[in-house]
Design a protein that fits this description.
Layout: E1 12-17, H1 23-35, E2 39-44, H2 46-56, E3 79-82, E4 98-106, H3 108-115, H4 122-133, E5 137-141, H5 148-159, E6 163-164, H6 178-192
Parallel strand pairs: 1-2, 1-4, 2-3, 4-5, 5-6
Helix pairs in contact: 1-6, 3-5
Bound molecules: flavin mononucleotide.
Amino acid sequence: MTGDRSLAPTRAFAVCWSGGSGIAYGLRLVEVLLAAGHTVHLCATGAALRVLVHEAGLPVDLARPDLAALFAPELRARLRVHDLAAVEAAPASGSAGIAATIVVPCSMGSLARIAHGFSSNLVERAADVALKEGRPLVVVPRETPLSVLHLQNLLELARLGAIVLPAMPGFYHRPQTVAELVDFVVGKILDRLAVPHQLVARWQTPAPRTPYDEGEV
Ligand SMILES: Cc1cc2nc3c(=O)[nH]c(=O)nc-3n(C[C@H](O)[C@H](O)[C@H](O)COP(=O)(O)O)c2cc1C
């Protein structure tokens, strides 16, 4: 008996990194999920690895990437890193028990291929499987400005049931650091996965009045 895994305290997630800017979102999501006791199946496109090196300045050997080394040793036990070509890996199968798939960041290229069912690598296949199984697929696109083609592909995916969650941090929590901006977006992803977190303070009361409100400016 497999039981209902949808709200199990710990679940398995597929986290896919593609070559959009904002690899910090992908890194942080994996870190938080692992720290919360979840299993993470991680797969990165070649472009994502290049962005990782460029944006995070991390020493990743593009020919032999060791993505597990990016995470603290105590977190690695629940991390499964898969090669992009490994279409036999767990996220490629609907019966593997993956609760949800998150493509973060999602490049416009991966977005287009996912929206049209290419399944030409493990990232695209994992997304395709989530759609066919009716499990949450969260895509976190990052591009600006957006062309009509980008918008069409986003709408296509939304119509297919994917959660389109743009990398658009808010500012109403008055972030002071880049890490807080990253956590805003990661917190939004976790909300859609029903993973409890305290990355961002919940909105409760309006911000204090400003001099503008008092008519002083
Ligand atoms: C530093 C860097 C930043 C990039 N930022 C973006 C971006 O924000 N959005 C995007 O769609 N593509 C971006 N690209 C281009 C993609 O990586 C490129 O189109 C790639 O082919 C996507 O491949 P993938 O979908 O297999 O990951 C960026 C590339 C680099 C090197």
